[in-house]
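Hi team,

As requested, here is the filled-out complex form for the adenosine-5'-diphosphate run. I kept the field names the same as last time so the parser does not choke. Let me know if anything looks off before we queue the next batch.

— J.
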Amino acid sequence: MVLQRVFRAVIMGPPGSGKGTMSARISKTFGLKHISSGDILRANIKDQTELGLLMKSSIDRGQLVPDDVMSRLMLSDLRALDHSSWLIDGFPRTVSQAEALDDAFTVDTVINLNVPFQTIKQRLSSRWTHLSSGRVYNVDFNPPKVPGLDDVTGETLVQREDDTPETVTRRLKAYQNQTEPVLEFYRSKGVLEIFSGTETNKIWPHVEAFLRRKVSPVEQTAA
Ligand SMILES: Nc1nc2c(ncn2[C@@H]2O[C@H](COP(=O)(O)OP(=O)(O)O)[C@@H](O)[C@H]2O)c(=O)[nH]1
Ligand SMILES: Nc1ncnc2c1ncn2[C@@H]1O[C@H](COP(=O)(O)OP(=O)(O)O)[C@@H](O)[C@H]1O
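And here is what came back:
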């Protein structure tokens, strides 16, 4: 058996740029554990945890959750994955979060999905989500086999409360003001890799080829 070094990556991009869709492909192909900050927060809201109840109104309004809360939540989950390779989606979203992550772990690669805002607005109005797994569908792009139901569990799909047009506009503003500076943080560390386009299927081969140079696909390892 060939032992592989632990590989740690972050996927960035505006809301709706395809991070979740791309992460599912990356994690299937390369065996990286996919950790989504949004899925973790939505699980807390669904389970009505203290954190979920406190954070729900900011999330529904399209505002970011406070940095200290978010960094503590994510770092404790990541520490529990000590020797696994992972891909984080949705964190860090501010420079302060990026610094907190940097203090705890060395990030090998940051994949940035550079997708125009106009493309995103159209997509999010037709996003359907399976809340407990984080699987996403789209009426036009990847519809579920049975309308309204998750392909794997058959459970009901929902539209996220923060996918309304006004809230999407607010989330895109938060992205520009608070998250874009994180790109500069990673550029200066020499780990930022930008993939531009309007279609996930066209961006994916480039992401896959890039990652193949860094990490072995899952068939070749015991991931
Ligand atoms: N039309 C279209 N929809 C896409 C494409 N890629 C992803 N989507 C859909 O766009 C929405 C947002 O994608 P998602 O992966 O959830 O983005 P995230 O918010 O960055 O994690 C979902 O409904 C996806 O199914 C694409 O290339 N074309
Ligand atoms: N790292 C984070 N820092 C602060 N808030 C976050 C973070 N990750 C997620 N959130 C909150 O959860 C919401 C949904 O996040 P997410 O599911 O990642 O959205 P999207 O996939 O559309 O970009 C965000 O709008 C924000 O309110």
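Two things worth flagging: Residues 15-16, 19-20, 37-38, 41, 58-59, 62-65, 70, 90-91, 93, 97, 162, 171 surround adenosine-5'-diphosphate (ligand 2) (CB under 6 Å). The radius of gyration is 17 Å.

Thanks,
J.
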